[in-house]
Amino acid sequence: MQIKGLNEEFGDLTTLISVPDRGPFGDSRYRGNYAGSVLGKLIFHLQKIGIKEPYVYDPMEGGKTSRDVCGYMNLPYVGADIHAGFDVVNDDFHDTGFDLTMLHYPYWNMIDYASDLPKHMQQLDMSRMSWKQFIAAVSHVNIKAAAHSRYVAVLVGDMVVKGKGYIRSIQREMAWIGVPVRHFTKLQHNAMSFRKSYRGSFIPVVTEHLLLFKTDYRPGGQLWILGSGQYHRIDADAYVTWKTAVKHVAKDLHHITPASVLNGIRTKFPVKLQKTQTPDATVRRTLQELEAEGFLNRAVRGVYELAS
Ligand SMILES: C[S@@+](CC[C@H](N)C(=O)[O-])C[C@H]1O[C@@H](n2cnc3c(N)ncnc32)[C@H](O)[C@@H]1O
Fold first, then answer.
1. Is the pTM higher than 0.85?
2. What is the pLDDT, as a whole number, of residue 115?
């Protein structure tokens, strides 16, 4: 599969970003790095809206792509990484008043960035955290960045959970900060899944998410965030109405009577019965409603049939 670059050079920015060649910026041997023109496009955008010399911060610079781009564009830049002894989660940021903070988070659990680090630093590597710890850390860093920077760009992938058939989505679960300027879809040209061909039902992930947030935070101003997503177990049956439940049960019955329907409800929608003190009356009333709507006909007293 190949989709050629939509816009080969820095410049045009659309909500679909495709940069097939990673370009001269950063260390191409560094796993999980990004093409410098992704940052270049964001910087050009900021320049177009009047921030002529954006002050850029990348606290997880890895192979130093951001550093190289800013050097090339002659922009003020501060960069760090756990490999330079800096922990983005717990340490103070190096400065404040940034125009753009680039947060290219580790690909949780997929790439081990810390094996070459001393033991005490390894446990600070975000990709080794549990999922819940990771999302809390990402949210914390997003908010911290918002308090230090007018714009914050977050680049994250979706992680396929091996053997389970679903993904974990950082962008969905993390805290959003300020207002989203745009949510970009970025093609992952360097991802394994883009190169391999898969058999069977596996759906390869070939895109990632780039979010550009505007906080415009000024000392004494207001900073708003959309909190991190929370999991709740819900009672799915509560979202299925009595009418739908009775219709569904009735479709499989030869003799549609209040008793046979109630039996079917007991098997297929047990939670509905926990929510009523008078299940017989509820079933009878629902059958009458379905008769009035023309879904059922009354054959004889107390016995219904499906209307054809
Ligand atoms: C996806 S990579 C960034 C790649 C980078 N944009 C580049 O151009 O190569 C994520 C980076 O986060 C760093 N990292 C992981 N945990 C960290 C932490 N707690 N503090 C600072 N950096 C961390 C990793 O060392 C890695 O370099």
1. yes
2. 84
